[in-house]
Amino acid sequence: MKEQDYVYSLDFVIPSGTTGPTGPRGDAGPALISDIITRYYSSTSVSGSVNIDVDNASNILLPNNSNCFSLYNDHIVINQPGIYEFFFSGLLTRSNTTDIVNLNLVVGNKDVIPISINSNLTEISFCQTRVIHCNTNDSILINFQNNGASGTSAQNLYIIVKKFSDFL
Which segments of 54-122 are extended strands (E)? Predict the structure, then answer.
């Protein structure tokens, strides 16, 4: 067998008929997602609210003139009530299996996506999504908690928040 025995040439024509009449154009349907924000967070090893990496060029807000979100150093405020999807990913580490390490995506006063390291693992990469109803003035923040042990950290933290259109 030759090295290029897997190469084949097809030489045929697919017949086509005449194009039929074009039907009437309908109105544009509603968009499923009205607003979206993405934010990278700074790595941390200190318990408390995690700061947003405001200099990260990959942070986006769409549309650019969205008034759905207000931005602060360590949290985002929702300005419009509705149904939101939250995507949260990152890396949680600890130097030994007795260290206690927790990470929470908090919306309003609820732990929407809690992350912790269980069993004999010293690190986990995670990615979770939740869809919830949010109210005006709900804050979105990430809380990192450890038992004070060195070698614990939260890294590569990233969120995507999508507001679904009100027609849902």
Answer: 60-62, 69-71, 75-78, 82-93, 101-107, 110-116
Inter-CA distances, 45 with 13, 122, 148, 151, 159, Å: 64, 14, 9, 8, 19
Alpha-carbon Rg of the chain, whole angstroms? 24
* Beta-carbon contacts of residue 145 (< 8 Å; ≥ 6 apart): 47, 100, 101, 102, 103, 104
Let me know if 92 is exposed, middle or buried by CB neighbors in 10 A (0-12, 13-18, 19+). buried
**Tens digit of pLDDT for each residue in 115-127?**
998 778 899 999 9
Summarised one tens digit per residue, pLDDT across range 37-93 is 999 999 999 999 999 998 888 899 999 889 999 999 899 999 999 999 999 999 999
